[in-house]
Write a structure and sequence with these properties.
With 252 residues, the chain is of the alpha/beta class. It contains nine helices and eight strands. It has an eight-stranded mixed sheet, with helices on both faces. Bound molecules: NADP nicotinamide-adenine-dinucleotide phosphate (NAP).
């Protein structure tokens, strides 16, 4: 399959790595649908891309709102009838620096709503459309922060970081990645499911500014999306149930 035949959905596509993915994949020839929970933010992001004559669409999509997901998927179904690539990129952190002994239950629940239940709800609603495609992929934007191996490794860059709600939700989403990949493989489906660690990237994630994040060692957007772009544009690759970054496999 060629990239110019691919219909792609990126959740949380209005800024940060999501926007960079929408731009790069449409530049690669894919028709990319940007999911944005706030239509105004999505519209200004999409206007800029359309000025560069990129093939992009916009849908309202809040991953914590089931009705919004159902409506967005129905819109894609009516227009395209199938989906080749789902990138579950939408994510949020609510508990940076909160200690496990005292972190508030609401912060833990908020993390799981976006990073775990939201990802699963979007995936389940998109599966019938992905099944309509001859070639299809699901890419979950995870994080090294969700790796228990990294959390226990004093040499890891995330060893000292604490955001137990976010970390647990990403770790749980990693297990969903593995189990869905196995289920689809058993069913001899053509859909692959993989998780990506983008590394520490200069975005507004967690209320930062890209400048502040850069001063703390975060990588440019182009580096953060590199592994995802590689996987998202290689239609020969059948890898499934992997967790990787630009350096290779990441320990779960
Ligand atoms: N930046 C890093 O260092 C880093 C490292 C590892 C992993 N990640 C992961 O990479 C992904 C992208 O993060 P980023 O750095 O690009 O962060 P970002 O700039 O904060 O962008 C996050 C995106 O997710 C959207 N979003 C948040 N809650 C949502 C919801 N309920 N429904 C739909 N969209 C929602 C945001 O929409 P609004 O604009 O409306 O808020 C925004 O478009 C996330 O999954 C994050 O966990 C980031």
């Amino acid at each position: 399959m060629q990239n110019n035949q691919a219909i792609t959905l990126v959740t949380g596509g209005n800024r940060g790595m999501g926007l960079a993915l929408v731009r790069a994949l449409s530049q690669a020839g894919q028709h990319v649908i940007m999911g944005a929970r706030d239509l105004e933010k999505g519209q200004s992001a999409i206007d800029e891309l359309r000025q560069s004559h990129l093939s992009v669409d916009l849908v309202q999509l809040d991953v914590t709102d089931h009705a919004s997901i159902v409506k967005a998927v129905q819109t894609i179904k009516n227009r395209f009838g199938q989906l080749n690539l789902l990138i579950n990129n939408a994510g949020a952190v609510f508990d940076f620096g909160q200690q496990p002994a005292t972190v508030a239950a609401e912060q833990l629940r908020a993390s799981f709503e976006v990073n775990y239940f939201g990802l699963i709800d979007v995936t389940q609603q998109c599966l019938p459309l992905l099944e309509q495609a001859e070639h299809a992929k699901i890419i979950n934007i995870s994080s090294m922060m969700g790796s228990k191996t990294a959390a226990l490794d004093p040499n890891s860059e995330v060893y000292g970081a604490v955001a137990v709600g976010y970390q647990s939700a990403k770790a749980a989403a990693n297990m969903y990645t593995v189990q869905l990949a196995k289920e689809l493989k058993r069913a001899q489906s053509s859909i692959t499911v993989n998780a990506i660690d983008p590394g520490m990237v200069a975005t507004e994630f967690g209320g930062a500014t890209p400048e502040l994040a850069r001063s703390m060692g975060a990588q440019p957007l182009a580096v953060g999306i590199a592994r995802t772009i590689e996987l998202a544009t290689d239609w020969e690759s059948r890898v499934t149930a992997t967790f990787s970054n630009t350096h290779g496999p990441v320990a779960w």
